[in-house]
Specification:
Radius of gyration: 32 Å
Number of helices: 16
Structural class: alpha+beta
Oligomer: single chain
Helix content: 40-55%
Strand content: 15-25%
Shape: elongated
Number of strands: 16
């Protein structure tokens, strides 16, 4: 007898049951907080421009009064490392609370499920509708649901692109159908990304696509706070009234509310996102049956195994891995703010003109030509003075650069051609190090930039 074996099995759609409780409220609190920040931030103005803007076209990153340039990559690098170490530390202490409450995938899935429930009904009606044949009612409900999903997704895509292009210009161009090809592409791409991930893939992203679900176990130990089932109290599960049983009545409410469809009673699983909805569901059942709450609760594996009462234990918090993560994190934060505090709000690059290696002017002075890009990294109009030193009698030819004063508007950058001259015959031929000096007006700060001055062979 032949038997067909499927190497791959498609996942069945999960219909999470609605649940009410403290953790469900916390989830919606974070939905509101994160989305107010996400959708509201691009509309915040600061100094006549968008407060937070990743201006890729002009290679600038505006953060309120601070303007970052590509040369400031170290700040972004440090910030990303700080975020990674913070996630490691938080995971080691409290598990996957980020996944359960603040992760964009979790947040948008929750929003899309809410829209679905308002249009199609509760989990039972949604499942019944999907299993039913196609008719006018089903088609109208599906069209309405997907229309709302698409509207919300497009709004999300526009907001996301608004972090990289001025949101006011973006909306204006959108209204007049003037969006360029790449801008339109990214609006559509992120809109469809949100629509597919939150509307269709949902828990599959958390279970199979997110790398965090795979390496989280490396940060867990027996003292990490996780969602746990107290099997000592709950087992054996209720089968009949005539047998001795634990507090678990096998109602499966914890499974029905789980957004990833797991059974928390089977122990810690990588699919668990730590949302705590099973805690709310179980507490509701325990309350109805007249039993103590917290059969499922946030606790540690160590406390469950040793039947220790839940509560804050400083010995658990101050364990080696937590101390190491904390020390690294605090060091990086201190380093970040030190660099930020010592950072000049202006900078410049010096590039030697390769077309003119050197030349002699009518006064027999050796001239080297440089191209200098000055960047005003502040939100204010600034004036600067340029100078050069490093060699005796070296100076900037004022005829090539006026009064050696530079004026730049807020966040403006510009290129300047500068000629540096040195009397001929003073030095032997060769390359000599020099320094350009840029000083902000009404400030004692001076920024130095290295360069090379070429002295030709006198015989030439």
């Amino acid at each position: 007898m032949e038997k067909e074996i499927h190497l791959y099995q498609s996942e069945q759609k999960i219909y999470p049951r609605d649940v009410f409780g403290i953790y469900a409220k916390f989830r919606w609190l974070f939905v509101w907080i994160t989305q107010i920040i996400f959708y509201g931030t691009p509309w915040v103005s600061w100094g006549g421009r968008q407060a937070i803007l990743f201006d890729i076209e002009h290679r600038r990153f505006y953060l309120f009064d601070i303007v970052f340039y590509p040369q400031d990559l170290i700040y972004l690098t440090l910030l990303l490392i700080i975020c990674a170490i913070s996630l490691f530390l938080f995971t080691a202490i409290a598990g996957r609370l980020w996944c359960g409450y603040a992760c964009p995938q979790t947040v948008y899935t929750e929003i899309f499920l809410w829209i679905e429930s308002k249009i199609e009904g509760n989990f039972f009606n949604r499942k019944k509708l999907d299993l039913a044949g196609w008719n006018i009612k089903k088609i109208s409900l599906k069209v309405l649901k997907h229309s709302v999903w698409l509207f919300f997704s497009i709004w999300t895509g526009i907001t996301f692109v608004g972090y990289f292009i001025d949101i006011n210009l973006l909306v204006n161009d959108l209204q007049h159908f003037l969006l360029s090809g790449w801008v339109l592409f990214w609006v559509i791409f992120y809109s469809m990304f949100t629509y597919m991930n939150a509307g269709f893939m949902r828990e599959q992203v958390c279970k199979y696509m997110c790398p965090y679900a795979r390496f989280q176990s490396a940060m867990f130990d027996q003292h990490t706070l996780i969602v746990t089932y107290d099997h000592y109290r709950g087992e054996p599960r209720k089968i009949s009234q005539s047998k001795i049983h634990g507090d678990c009545i096998n109602c499966q409410a914890c499974i029905q509310v789980c957004p990833t469809g797991i059974d928390i009673r089977d122990g810690l699983q990588y699919e668990c996102i730590g949302c705590g909805l099973c805690v709310d569901a179980c507490n509701t059942i325990m309350e109805k049956t007249g039993k103590f709450k917290n059969l499922i609760r946030y606790s540690t594996d160590y406390k469950i195994k040793n039947k220790i009462k839940d509560g804050l234990n400083y010995q658990e918090i101050l364990r080696p891995r937590i101390l190491i993560y904390t020390l690294i994190l605090l060091s990086l934060i201190a380093l970040f703010f030190y660099f930020l505090e010592s950072r000049y709000d202006y900078k410049y690059d010096v590039v030697k003109d390769r077309k003119v290696m050197y030349r002699l002017d009518e006064n027999n002075n050796i001239e080297n030509v440089y191209r200098i890009k000055v960047m005003n990294a502040s939100n204010h109009f600034q004036k600067y003075h340029l100078g050069v030193d490093g060699l005796f009698n070296i100076k900037i030819d004022e005829r090539s650069y006026g009064r050696l004063r530079i004026e730049l508007d807020p966040s403006e950058s510009d290129w300047f051609v500068v000629t540096v001259e040195l009397p001929n015959g003073v030095l032997q031929s060769g390359n000599y190090p020099i320094h350009f000096l840029l000083k902000k007006e009404n400030s004692d700060d001076i920024v130095f930039e290295k360069a090379t001055f070429l002295v030709p062979n006198n015989e030439n």
